[in-house]
Amino acid sequence: MRPGFRELIFFFTWLATGHTQFGQQGHQASLHLAFLGIWFVLLIPVLGGLLYGSSAPLDGYEIVDLIITPDSLAAGHHIADVPWPRGPIVVSVTDGGEITPALPSMTLSPGERVVLPAPTRANGESAAGPTR
Question: What is the distance between the alpha carbons of residues 37 and 126, in angstroms, rounded to a whole number?
Fold first, then answer.
């Protein structure tokens, strides 16, 4: 961690809550925004998101989430053996709530979700195209 980063976190926590470490305080209102009551817990992240803006990971790419169905060409095959469309790279696989980094030797099963960044075309359409 960079020197000063921790202090910056403590400063913004103090600015919003009146405490440098708010999580240990339990359910209580902000000392600086007392008029909001406990609702400041919802307001502060919303304001942070509005100030930061949307988080587009890469210009020219979109995040594609594919569900492996029983009749999918990918079901029962290793990630490296699946004929993916040109361009995308599989980055993670989820089964239920667990996200696992994608490894070439990983075998895909029906019900799993494959997450990959895919390049977009100039017209905004996904270059990955329809997949099964």
Answer: 45
| Extended strands (E) in 21-120 | 61-67, 92-95, 98-101, 113-119
Q: How many domains does the chain have?
A: 2
Which among 90, 87, 71 is positioned nearest to 79, based on CA atoms? Answer: 90
The C-alpha R_g of the chain, in whole angstroms, comes to: 22
What pTM value is reported for the model? 0.49
Q: What is the pLDDT of residues 69-125, one digit of tens each?
A: 999 989 999 999 998 877 777 888 887 778 888 888 989 999 999 988 888 866 556
Given the structure tokens 């406990």, which residue do they identify?
38
Cα 42 to Cα 20, 22, 45, 46, 48: the distances in Å are 18, 14, 6, 7, 11
Task: Report the CATH number that the domain containing residue 98 is assigned in CATH.
Answer: 3.30.70.1450
**Distances, alpha carbon 31 to alpha carbons 16, 22, 125, in Å:** 8, 11, 48
- The whole-number average pLDDT for the span 19-37 is 76
